[in-house]
Amino acid sequence: MEKAEFSAIINYLDRNWNKPWEVEEEMVKLLYQSKMPRLIELGRTPLPTEYGPMTYIVFGDYATGKEYDVAIFGNFTGKKFMDYNYPLVRVHSSCRTSELFHADNCECRQELDFALKQMSKEKKGILIYLNQEGGGNGIKAKIAAYKNTFEIKKGKVIVKKRQKRQAIKRLRWI
Fold first, then answer.
1. Quick one: which of 5, 44, 73, 156 could link to 125 by a disulfide (CB 3.0–4.6 Å)?
2. What homologous superfamily does CATH list for 37-159?
3. Which part of the chain is CATH 3.40.50.10990?
């Protein structure tokens, strides 16, 4: 990348830091125009896990600055790749409340665990782990939704009672 192109990107980011959706669109255009890849492999390593050995790969996204994780069970290189008919694939959005804190109002951890167990059993599979909490809405939106759903009473977390809703009046569309 030329110094002028790099300066243009930095100036654009400085002016639009508060509009990440626009920044991503513009970054994708700039990367395409300068023939740079959007994703780059940052590293890979064999990783022993409770599900068995896997290859752990981390990719970086130049447009968003995010990192994405990929776990591969089995050997998918060269001729070996052709031996795998339809490997198991899971695209999973991160879920800190379930995977880290084991929240019982969400089944993300169980879904991830099931997918990893199936890949381990088949000895082949690819997990793409997206760092986009709350299905891409972000942790702030997720916490706000939880705050509107749950409350603590007498030391217990309970589901809030919903307000009685008004009937929706029929609208006439023109």
1. 73
2. GTP cyclohydrolase II (3.40.50.10990)
3. 37-159
Is the full-model pTM beyond 0.85? no
**Which residues does 85 contact at the CB level (< 8 Å), separation at least 6?**
none
Tokens of 161: 């009672």
How high is the pLDDT of residue 173?
47
Report residue 102 as tokens: 């084991």
Placement of tokens 């490997």 in the chain = 87
Query: Which two structure tokens, joined as six digits, stand for 135?
Result: 């299905």
Q: Contact 44/37 with Cβ under 8 angstroms?
A: no
- CA pair distance 24, 133, nearest whole angstrom: 17
Instruction: Decide: 39 and 61 in contact? Cβ < 8 Å.
Output: yes
CA dihedral sign of residues 64, 69, 75, 81 = negative
- Under 8 Å between Cβ of 101 and 142: no
Predicted pLDDT of residue 174: 42
pLDDT confidence of 165, banded at 50, 70, 90? low
